[in-house]
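<derive_structure_tokens>
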Amino acid sequence: MPNVHHLPPELSSFVGRGPEFAAVGAAVAPGRLVTLAGPGGCGKTRLAMRAAVGLADRWVDGAWWVDLAGEVPGGDVVRIVAGRLGVLLPDSVPSEVALAHGLRDRTMLVVLDNCEHLLAEVAPVVEAVLGGCPGVALLATSRAPVGVAGEVVWRVPPMSLADALDLFLDRSGHPGVTDAAEERVSARRVCDRLDRLPLALELAAAWAGTLATAQIADSLADPFPLLSGGPRTAPFRQRTLAESMRWSHDLLDADERALFRRLAVFEPGYAATEAVALAAATDLTPGRVLPALRGLIDKSLVIADTTGPVARYRMLGVVRAYARGRLDEAGETDDTRDRHLGLFLALAEAASPLLATDKDAWRARIGAEYPNIRAALAWGLARPDPEAGRRLAVAVAWLWHLENRGHEGLALLSTALSRGDGHPGALQARILVSLALVADTTDPHIDGYAAADDGAAMAEAFGDPATARLGHALGAVGAIARGLDAARDAADRTAREAHAAGDAFVAEACAMLLGMIHVFRDEYPQARAILAPAVEGLLTRGDRGVAVTGLSWLAVACARSGELDHAAELAERAVAAASPLHDVHRLGTALGALAEIRGLQGRFADAAAALDPIERITGGPGSFVPGWDRTVGQLALWTGDVDRAVARCRREAAPLPDTQLVLATALRLSGDPVAAGRLLDRVEEVARAAGMPRLHAGALAQRAELVLPSDPAAALDLQHEALRLRAAHQLTLDCVDSLEALARLALRRSAPEVTAVLSGAADRARSDTGYAARTPPAPAPEDVARTAGDAYDRGAAMTLAEAVAYAARARGPRQRPVSGWGSLTPTEASVVELAVEGLSNPEIAARLFMSRSTVKTHLAHVYEKLQVANRTELARAAGHRGTP
């Protein structure tokens, strides 16, 4: 049957419940919540599992199981559900909204098991899914209804007598007994006395290897005391289960009872080694623990899942609750929970060497134990002496950094930090740096980088150089906000320290940051030389997170150098490395790089497919992957959707200069030159100050398009300056754009041979690089074809460097001097005339039909050519000469 692999394995046969199964199957439907409600032990979970198995083939995207038994009230249920269903949740969008967006196109059945202790957290998740996902059906199990509009509550009844008999006899090893047999008569007495509750019957049947069926029935004849504090007026079904639990517990031997109550501190899914370690630390020797564990399994008090490489164990919720009561009754709760904390602290700290050699293996090891680690953390941080809890928080911080658990990690680390307030030391330093580590991928806007700097300084003061290096590396990332030079210096200094200390991760992480800074500054050969070896080292150790970022920037560097095929391979590697992390930022960075490269190749459908996993969860305004909206906007421009390009670029909360350049281009094409010019002013200012020639040249090229209608000569100057910058910094693809822009200008000024040569050279470069995207289009083929001779073929035979040199020669001698009044273009002369008359920049812009920023640019050029500093000096110079 398809899609069953999304459900947990059925560890025993399913008996009876035919009418119930049919009724539940008929009630489950897309867009509806069906809640199987009833007391503990009535069979809600098994009925839901059987229903999901039977209904799985109805759903294209399968039937999925989410077990909430181990979660605590106040937890992030939406992220647990999203993680199980493989939905990425961005931080900038409300979680329920993002989950609904991620599921809105799916057709699937989702089972939410054991909801009763989390109703306040489950309800908004259910409402969001029902409201936004018409193809999703929800099936919940709970002791009480979820309480949302439209919920169908289906009360799970006791088993029919026939089904109850079949279940008891099957589990006791006596299936097929005839109605007249004495065995069946005794079995019926058991069923009657246990109110035909499945869990109670399972517990009773587990004793069939020790007692005869008649003895089991006789033992259940007299009422037993209820659970501590339980009223004798409780419903008979609840009293029956309590009595069967008590009866089963009383029949255990001493070792089984001791182990039973101590296992109550474990969250579901622990291994035998952990059970042995916990119990053996008390009065049980290791040789007695495994037989006792086997006895509990045989008696159905512990469930063993042997389907994986290592057997793991759990108790049903009601059984665990009973065991906790016995633990409290024995006065062993605090001691056992302390031992549980010590066990998982030792496990986490013993695994820490893997962080330096194989983070994938470390993540698998710690991730498998995370429910118990989280429970141990909560206990440890609340103890009078919180040191063990604080150490455990540090020991698992990388898991929160790597996986979609960052918000929970930040909360726990903040608690750990507060428990050490006023007590600086090596542990407090490690907590500060751990907080920065988790914030780096979860919420870098919460002063996490300041925590890195503080932690590094404290670590140095208390003799922990390894923690100090990691803090300095994280602080270097934060230094980007102070400028690229500050970030480069911090990263370079920390990389050298790490190399000297043999700290490979910090050295390579800093190398990745240095390579990224080289990309920002369009220094692609340097970026590639640093990033390539750093990425390989990171991947070798399973440092997926940082490696994904490095691979993505390496792909960008290769793409802008004209190696699009290699760039696409690198971006695909980044996506593959990011996928297991289920991290929006890392996966979004990789997919964004891949989408842009596919767009540059003209593979727009593939680009859209790369964008889709992230686009599916953009449930509101604002971007959550830096540069994501710019990528979407650029692809929209390439496909001619100017309005979408404008809308997406404007959506970016804190627009980067790259985004502003794309937006300026889109605004120009949409007919808003004033807004476009204003943005180009900002881009050019940032690019000049930060040393970003690609952005500077891009702004010049767009400025040329703006001034072209009024001043073709100025447009030609700007395009040639853009080409000069692009060629000097080996911006291969951008050089192609410049050649085509100059070809259009040559056609405009009736130089068809130049148009043909430059068009041929540009087409040759496109063929060599695979660069297919264009904004705006190249000269029409028929215009190039009208030229005489073999000019196009001569251009197509040129290398890119030869074509750039030809473009400079074809420009010919300048008709105007480079300085003085004679150097002014006609438009510049008009601007001077109006400025001397006293008109403001907005008034000049209105008079000459240009943007204010264009006026500002013209005046800047005029000041430079005339060697004046401001309007006052300009008016004085014009008065001496007479206005031009």
The CA atoms of residues 2 and 57 lie 6 Å apart. The longest strand covers residues 136-142.
